[in-house]
Specification:
There is one protein chain. With 147 residues, the chain is an alpha+beta fold. Helices cover 27% and strands 32% of the residues. The protein has two domains: 31 residues, no CATH class; 104 residues, Gcn5-related N-acetyltransferase (GNAT) (Aminopeptidase, 3-Layer(aba) Sandwich). The chain has a six-stranded mixed sheet.
């Protein structure tokens, strides 16, 4: 391919055709480079007496790592320990799979203090978002058994 023949364009949105090609290309590269078939979903859910979901923690495990991707509790159910319970249960299931490293991203307006109370430490803090909002990458390490 002749590099001088390439045409570059910048967009304020993602063109559907280009976005799909980039996603597919990166996906194929990743599958060829890493054993992504080992990645397993994990979730804990809280339901009310009628069976309605009032909260959940969703993530994925891969090897000894667990990524917590989403945690949410219905507004009127917050501050009752539900999120802590969801995360403790998710941690226990992931630890049973052999996970020892847990990580997540959260914003300052979400629940960084909750994660700190569960043993997470801030490893990266980013500023520059509007309204003085900060983004944190947090990690929780579980000692290896026998150490």
């Amino acid at each position: 391919m002749e590099l001088s023949a390439l045409i570059y364009s910048t967009h304020d949105d993602v063109p559907k055709d280009a976005g799909a090609i980039v996603d597919d290309g990166l996906g194929a590269f990743n599958v060829a480079a890493a054993p992504l078939h080992e990645v397993q979903p994990i979730a804990t859910v809280a339901r009310d007496a009628e069976g309605q979901v009032v909260g959940g923690a969703i993530g994925r495990t891969w090897g000894a790592c667990c990524e917590v991707q989403q945690v949410w509790v219905k507004e009127e159910c917050r501050r009752q320990g539900i999120a802590s319970r969801l995360l403790r249960d998710l941690h226990a299931r992931a630890e049973a799979r052999g996970c020892r490293t847990f990580y997540l991203e959260t914003f300052s307006f979400q629940a960084p203090s909750l994660y700190e109370s569960l043993g997470y430490e801030t490893k990266l803090e980013l500023s520059g978002f509007s309204g003085e909002i900060r983004k944190y990458t947090m990690v929780r390490q579980v000692p290896t058994r026998g150490s």
